[in-house]
Design goal:
The protein is α+β, with helices and mostly antiparallel strands. It has helices at about 5-15, 20-25, 25-45, 55-75, 80-95, 105-115, and strands at about 125, 145-150, 160, 180-185, 190-195. The protein folds into two domains: about 5-115, no CATH class; about 125-195. The relative contact order is 0.13.
Length: about 200
């Protein structure tokens, strides 16, 4: 077996075996990494939520390849870096080029939606029961509201004003506002209309 085939076979075995078992599907893991990198870059004022330009799961795969390329500049004979580059390329292909039956409709929708992060001012619609909220009895599937606040917390970072109160909602610090605001997760929201950018 030649070196190209050996490296490719090893990378395929890793991304479909041990790495997938340890970290989950690439589109989910890389999207998680993208959210963390976006939060870090936003905190450092390197990216801006207003522009709607964020790192995606596919970008994570490409940037991880660049890390490996930088390491190869120091040690060009390090075989594992070549294996990892091929592995990241395979993961990116799986994210960007889903074949028939490769991804469930939910995962495909999440990957497409991840291309643009939700921003304050966006009109959104819930896609999951309870709006992915941290509490039960939240807004039903299909409820529409406006994102009024973003907090960089892991669970339910988007504060959405649904205008219709549901028991258990948040006033969002507004006196006499009722209970129409809910903290929702990204995967439970879809953008209906982008806010003013």
């Amino acid at each position: 077996m030649d070196i190209k085939q050996s490296v490719a076979d090893e990378a395929l075995k890793i991304v479909n075996g041990a790495r997938r078992a340890a970290y989950g599907r690439p589109e989910r893991n890389f999207e998680r990494v993208a959210r963390l990198w976006n939060a870090h870059l936003q905190n450092r004022a390197i990216i801006d939520r207003v522009t709607g330009k964020f790192i995606t799961a596919a970008d994570v795969a490409a940037m991880c390849r660049l890390i490996k390329e930088a390491r190869l500049a120091e040690t060009p004979d390090h075989r594992d870096s070549y294996v990892d580059i091929v592995g990241y390329a395979l993961c990116q292909a799986e994210i960007a080029l889903p074949g028939p039956g490769d991804l469930s409709k939910d995962i495909a929708r999440e990957c497409a939606a991840a291309k643009r992060e939700i921003a304050v001012g966006d009109r959104v619609r819930t896609t999951k029961p309870d709006g992915g909220c941290t509490m039960e009895d939240g807004p039903p599937v299909g409820a529409e509201g406006e994102v009024v606040q973003f907090e960089g917390r892991e669970r339910a970072p988007y504060l959405v004003d649904f205008k219709t109160p549901w028991p258990g909602g948040h006033s969002g610090g507004r006196p006499g506002a009722g209970r129409s605001r809910w903290y929702c997760t990204r995967d439970a929201l879809e953008i209906v209309k982008e806010g003013a950018q």
